[in-house]
Amino acid sequence: MLARVQTAGLQGVEALPVTVEVGLTTGLPTFTVVGLPQSAVREGRERVLSALRHIGVTLPPRRITVNLAPADLRKEGTGFDLPLAVALLVAADEVTAESVVGVGFVGELGLDGTLRRVRGVLARAVGCRAGGARAVVVPPGNVGEARAVPELEVRTAGDLDELRACLGGRRSWPVLPAAITRTVPDAPDLADVRGQPLAKRALEVAAAGGHNLLLVGPPGVGKTLLARRLPGLLPELTREEAAEVTRIHSVAGLLRDGDGLLSSRPLRAPHHSVSDAGLVGGGQPVRPGEATLAHRGVLFLDELPEFRRSALELLRQPMEEGTIHLVRAHGATTFPARFALVAAMNPCPCGDLGHPTRVCRCDPSQVTRYRGRVSGPLLDRIDLQVPVGVVPAEVMASSTPGVGSAEVRSRVRGARERQWSRFAGTAVGCNAEMGPGELRQFVRPSRGVARLLQRAQDRLGLSPRAYHRILKVARTLADLDGRAAITEADAAEAIHFRELDRPVM
Q: How many CB atoms lie within 10 A of CB 70?
């Protein structure tokens, strides 16, 4: 007797169709799982057998061979429990083979047959659909994310016995639980921040063009306060972006029971002790890191020089390409990582360099070594490098609110809409993503702008990458003001944002 049931296996944040094949043959009673199963999949055999015994199903004393095809794809996770159990039910004539045709199954089983939620169901449901499934059966806690897959019927059951009855037609499928809308707290308002007009302007520019931002200033002046307000300035997620973000968080196991599509842009703020794998992904099995979890949102690195040099250098590729390619002995994995980087650091080891009342105790060599913890190639990729100064007491005591996030977000959305129109039909989504070809096509500096940039390059020793990034920022400044061409004022302001390209003292 041979039974086949459809499911899907994770590969990074994507999923590939997998067929669970069960064969019952004569011979000594054994139970073998082949097809590169990892430990959680092999251990699922015991959970499945216990669940079947709990619902009164006794397998015949035969040689049972389970093949997870394709056999060259590593299978990991507990989501194979349910398709394996269903395949055994088909092989034991408890349900008909016709009842599982065109249906994908994903889920973990308890020893009593209860269906338990697993990670990555959104990606696995897409994988089942790619394999030809018209419907998918998932645990009740995963229904919300599975519903996000278009043109795929979602079914659920509380336990294996109920599932057997539904497949046999003796019971109707349960009504799907209502979608749970996770209450997302409002992002902190920019109006709460007193003073700091230059830093606020930089936040607006970073949000409008998708640029990376570094805030440099003494301790306690509001760098973290400012950085955490950037997500509230970004445009709302489109449905496609929400599906990407939800799929990533589902694979990482960060969704809760009943969660559907996430509606807010992520903000990830790892501690500076984060490992290389924790920041960009890795491990066994390979999991997404903080850079991928910040996809379509903000990655905030506070105390930037305190991060491991090796971890920071790994961000150079995703900051350019928006993806992370991990190559390991067992295969290669690609993670999306299109984030806006916001970092904060002190100007020197003691933090008082440039303070209006405190005296810096560091000599120039100490300052140079401190800033040298952040490599030049990484700084080159940060478009906006902004000083954050001490706010005067009279400004802090003022009761007059500043410009709020809603007003800034409205201007940001207007600038983004101009970019979406400009880049329609291309893979570019915002100014920061432009390559040399798009720069030549969409950013044509006038003779005066070119002369100004040449003088800045000669004086500051700008690299070609920094030169191009200044052009991108200038293009964003023009978009914020609704201008078709960049002006010398736009270029001058973009150059002014390159704080760390200037001498230390």
A: 14
What is the C-alpha to C-alpha distance for residues 301 and 448, in angstroms, rounded to an integer? Answer: 37
> C-alpha distances in angstroms, 252 versus 118, 147, 160, 215, 483?
10, 19, 26, 30, 42
Closest by Cα among 193, 195, 228 to 213: 228
Across 182-187, average pLDDT = 63
Average pLDDT over residues 144-170: 95
pLDDT at 187 over 80: no
Higher-confidence position of 58 and 293: 293
Alpha-carbon distances of 39 from 16, 78, 85, 290, rounded to whole Å: 19, 9, 17, 26
User: Residue 311 has which token pair?
Assistant: 């971890």
Least confidently predicted of 7-21, 374-388, 391-405: 391-405
Contacts of 439 (CB under 8 A, 6+ apart): 468, 471, 472
Element (H, E) at 6: strand 2-11
Model pLDDT for residues 280-296, shown as the tens digit of each residue: 998 888 899 999 999 99
Q: Is the pLDDT score of 343 beyond 80?
A: yes
What are the C-alpha distances in Å from 338 to residues 103, 314, 333, 415? Answer: 34, 14, 16, 19
pLDDT value of residue 505 = 41
Strands 30-34 and 63-69: parallel
Beta carbons within 10 angstroms of residue 381's beta carbon? 18
Which pair of tokens denotes residue 98? Answer: 């016709």
* Nearest-angstrom CA–CA distance, 49 and 176: 27
In terms of C-beta density within 10 A (0-12 exposed, 13-18 middle, 19 or more buried), how is residue 328 classed?
exposed
- Residue 272 burial (CB < 10 Å; 0-12/13-18/19+)? middle
Can you read off the two tokens belonging to residue 467? 């030169």
Q: Are 413 and 407 in contact (CB under 8 A)?
A: no
Q: Which long-range contacts (CB under 8 A, 24 or more apart) does 168-173 make?
A: 168/94, 168/95, 168/96, 168/99, 169/99
**In this structure, are residues 214 and 304 in contact, taking their beta carbons and an 8 Å threshold?**
yes
Mean pLDDT check: name the lowest of 152-166, 169-183, 187-201.
Answer: 169-183
Q: Concatenate the DSSP letters of all residues of 101-162 into one string.
A: TTEEE--EE-TT-BEE--TTHHHHHHHHHHTT-SEEEE-GGGHHHHTTSTT-EEEE-SBHHH
pLDDT above 80 (res 347): yes
Q: How far apart are CA 164 and CA 171, in angstroms?
A: 9
Q: What pLDDT, on the 0 to 100 scale, is given for residue 502?
A: 57
